[in-house]
Specification:
This protein is an alpha/beta fold. The chain has a single domain, classed as 4-Layer Sandwich (Metallo-beta-lactamase, Chain A). It contains nine helices and 16 strands.
């Protein structure tokens, strides 16, 4: 399973793009920075978008992406997410006020985008890759995902504070190759992290005690002002399997 990290951060700066992964060239997990990271010809290869939740750092490039590929594809773009996420995207993005409603363009019978609701822990096969939505703990309804193909899987936390079900699944999946986990702020900003339901290195360490096996852990979603402090604190934890999801890198699982 090939995964290209288009954006790995929880905010933007000249060097930081917000969250988006490209899976097997055709699926985007979140749409924070598809249009910033991919040229038009590669954008036109993406046929499915799987959303974790509705926050802007996970949806910001979606309107521009749809416009960029409009008329270039044979058939619609499929957008997947929870009922709450789909509702929010339709209400606040594709509403004809913020951006045209491409679910009715060029017409409602032949739309440019189609929405598909996912249910927690009900697997969905998308372009040959299986996604199992997992409820995590964030300010809005949010899914992490167990992502599986050909006997190998990756566990993606999305944005989360301290959570439970994610680790229960991590402990039972036999073919797990890596876990990608939110660590947004340094520990000095613990109060902000707690209020916004994100992790710091301190709460990450407590979360990792729930993991009953050895598997690579990749930190993502660091806020740009916190990068140096979070990296320093994560490295100081001394976990041999703990590293960082690097923007611009391609991983094979």
């Amino acid at each position: 399973m090939k995964i290209e990290v288009l954006g790995a951060y929880g905010g933007e700066s000249p060097r930081c793009r917000v969250t988006s992964l490209l899976i097997e060239e055709r699926i985007a997990l979140d749409a924070g920075s598809i249009t910033q990271a991919l040229p038009i010809d590669r954008q036109a290869q993406v046929r499915s978008i799987v959303l974790t939740h509705s926050h802007m750092d996970h949806t910001a490039s979606l309107p521009f992406f749809v416009e960029n590929v409009y008329g270039r594809l044979d058939g619609p773009i499929d957008i997947y997410g929870s009922r709450a996420t789909i509702y929010s995207v339709r209400k606040h993005l594709f509403n004809n006020d913020t951006w045209p409603d491409f679910s009715r363009l060029p017409n409602h019978l032949l739309p440019a985008i189609r929405f598909h609701e996912l249910e927690a822990e009900v697997p969905r096969m998308i372009d040959g890759v299986t996604f199992v939505p997992i409820v995590v703990d964030h300010l809005v309804p949010t899914f992490g995902y167990l992502i599986e193909k050909q006997g190998r899987s990756l566990l993606w936390s999305s944005d989360t504070g301290p959570t439970v079900r994610l680790w229960e699944i991590a402990n039972r999946v036999a073919n797990l190759r890596a876990i990608c986990i939110d660590t947004s702020f340094e520990t000095a900003m613990q109060n902000v992290a707690d209020l916004s339901l994100h992790l710091t290195p301190a709460t990450l360490e407590r979360e990792l005690r729930k993991l009953e096996r050895r598997v690579p852990i990749l930190v993502h979603h660091i806020k740009p002002p916190s990068i140096e402090a979070v990296r320093r604190e994560v490295e100081a934890l001394g976990y041999p399997d703990l590293g960082f999801l690097e923007q611009g890198e391609t991983y094979e699982f």
